[in-house]
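Subject — a protein and its fold

Tokens — whole-number codes for backbone shape
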Amino acid sequence: MFGRRRKHDGQRVDSVPSLLARNLSLVGDVEFEQGLEVLGLIQGNVTQRPGVTGMLSLRAEGRIEGDVSCHDALIDGTIVGDLEVEHLLELRASARVIGNISYRLLSMEPGATVEGTLTRLGTDDDGMGEPPRLLRVDLM
């Protein structure tokens, strides 16, 4: 993420405003704005402040033990808890989610593991076609 420019939902992301380094562990709930990159451990719920858009980036060495709610997410590490992503969720090959996932748009690389249910968010008028449905995926 650092030093790379990435086009994301019409916005350019030059850097992530907040970083939890790999040598840090945090116990407690976290609320963030704009962006959060996690390389360490969070034991608590992670939520994006209401009314703002941004991205959660969970690196391969990062781990979150708690529920996560955000606008966009790039997951490369481990989440033990439910994950709700309002817009785009990218699950990279080393992603591990033990919990239920709800999302609007999903990109999932081979090798990603989900132990739970996937539910697409949206309605008939969101331009996404048919209404939300429940999808069970076991990738092991």
In short: The first strand starts at residue 6 and ends at 8.
